Amino acid sequence: MTTTVPRFEELVAPSHWRTVDFISDLHLQASEPATVGAFQRYLATTEADALFILGDLFEVWVGDDALAEPGSFEAQGCAHLQSAARRLPVYFMHGNRDFLAGTGFLAQCGITGLSDPTVLVFDGQRYVLSHGDLLCLDDVDYQRFRVQARSAEWQAQFLAQPLATRRAQARGIRQESEARKQSGVTYADVDGPATITWLQAADAHTLIHGHTHRPADHALAPGLRRVVLSDWDAAALPPRVETLRLSRAGLERIALAPMYERS
Ligand code: MN
Question: How far apart are CA 170 and CA 161, in angstroms?
């Protein structure tokens, strides 16, 4: 597949931001209470001046009308985001699982939507932020689905179905993807040359992304790098609960799991 260079939105960090946190791929779901709890504690305690969520915060999002269901998992998650957003600015980028989170979700949580990709200008440095799925070029079937699922027509059709039907469909898709995972299939990774093309087009030096669940720092070319966020699983041994923190000193991975251990 050829690389198409997307349009880069730009966000200039206000000068009073000393630290910015990046997280992604928490895949929050009611059946994973340890990770949900870790996220709540993180939101309540982070000392960052801004939080950027780079996709797949939720395992699935079937429509903003789920927020109106009393006591729904979505409504609870939104309440936690809302209380965090009173303390610090929270930015939300779609992932491939929660791409249907819409303006109703953003408004109810009091958080700000972020285009994929966005260039964050922090302390004079330019960082490209993306979920990462768009750069997994070898996943041809997924790229085809992505084009379809991001169209207004597909979304209107999906959202026109009753909420219960959408929830059932999401469960079906999840079971299929679990089965695929169990079968030991190897997932496509972010494409190196395409990343370099993006960075050059954005006049940036670092791509920060999630999606692949392969946390690492990759040197791509002199001065160009790709930093991959960890997914979260607070019930794993060892637990994966991590934020990537940007300050004037640079990027630092901070393992949050130890401080969240309960006696
Ligand atoms: Mn993803």
Answer: 12
C-alpha span between 205 and 219 (Å, rounded): 10
Beta bridge partners of 218: 226
pLDDT digits (tens, 9 = 90+) for 232-244: 999 999 999 999 9
For the chain, how far is it from start to end, CA to CA, in angstroms? 51
Q: Is residue 173 part of a domain?
A: no
Cα(187) to ligand 1 centroid in Å equals 11
Within a domain: 201:
yes
For ligand 1, the distance from its centroid to the CA atom of residue 47, given in whole angstroms, is 26
pTM of the full predicted structure?
0.95
In the reported structure, the alpha carbon of residue 213 is separated from the centroid of ligand 1 by a whole-number distance in angstroms of: 8
Residues ≥6 apart with Cβ < 8 Å to 49: 16, 17, 18, 19, 20, 88, 89
Ligand 1 centre distance from Cα of residue 56 (Å): 5
- The predicted-structure confidence for 135-194, as pLDDT tens digits, reads as follows 999 999 999 999 999 999 999 999 999 999 999 999 998 888 888 888 888 889 999 999
Distance CA 177, CA 255 (A): 28
94 CA distance to ligand 1 middle (Å): 9
Residue 91's domain spans which residues? 9-131+192-255
- On whether residue 177 sits in a domain, the answer given is no
Strands 112-114 and 90-93: parallel
Coil, strand or helix at 179: helix
